[in-house]
Amino acid sequence: MAEISINGVRRTEFGKGASRRARREGQVPAVIYGHGEKPSHINLPARELGVALKTSNVLLDIVVDGKTELTLPKSIVRHPIKLTIDHIDLVIVRRGEKVTVAVPVHTSGEHDRDGILEHVNHTIEVETEATSIPSFFELDLTGLAAGLSLYAGDVKLPAGVVLISDPKMIVVHLSERSTAVEEVAVVAPAADAAAAAPAADAEKKDA
């Protein structure tokens, strides 16, 4: 799994005004907490943080005043329109420690083309070592027939990873294509032909 180091600066000003100034200067207000440590209020470079967070469940080595804390993003607040990061909470983790995280599920393989694939849940919760969090899991759809589903319990997990989500939680469902659309498509041409026939007869009479 990815582990990225970012240098932070301890905050000396607090409040909404200070946070807005920090954002204008390309910084993101952040809080680090956990393991009985006193919460630490810092600013992080927005660009570096944004790049790091493109990786799912990335571990961040936050360096402040020469001290490094291994952290996991816990809560991210984004601007409602710009979607830039307004604030982030980081929880301290230790190497070898077990954590519960949501991991994305990607799909592969060919399913029945007569069905429409619905992604009901995009992630599943698992327990794993903090430094061994998978970036994603792969769910094989090969042979999945229309009308059937695959569940959290169908996702193959690597050794040391324990499923926390309900095994019966639906991850994907292959719904059957509605016959209503097909019926409309068939009836419409027939209706057009029926309407065209009287019109053609009328033209012949006029002639």
UniProtKB/TrEMBL annotation:
**Which Gene3D superfamilies does the protein's record reference?**
Ribosomal protein L25, beta domain, Ribosomal Protein L25, Chain P
Q: Name one GO molecular function term.
A: structural constituent of ribosome
Q: Name one GO biological process term.
A: translation
Q: Which InterPro entries match?
A: Rbsml_bL25/Gln-tRNA_synth_N, Ribosomal_bL25/Gln-tRNA_synth, Ribosomal_bL25_b-dom, Ribosomal_bL25_C, Ribosomal_bL25_long, Ribosomal_L25_dom, Ribosomal_uL5_bac-type
Note whether Transmembrane occurs among the keywords.
Answer: no
Q: Which residues form the Large ribosomal subunit protein bL25 L25 domain?
A: 7-90
Which keywords does this Swiss-Prot/TrEMBL entry list? Ribonucleoprotein, Ribosomal protein, RNA-binding, rRNA-binding
Record-linked SUPFAM superfamilies: Ribosomal protein L25-like
Question: Its GO CC terms?
Answer: cytosolic large ribosomal subunit
- Please state every residue range assigned to the domain named Large ribosomal subunit protein bL25 beta: 98-176
Can you name this protein?
A: Unannotated protein
Source species: freshwater metagenome
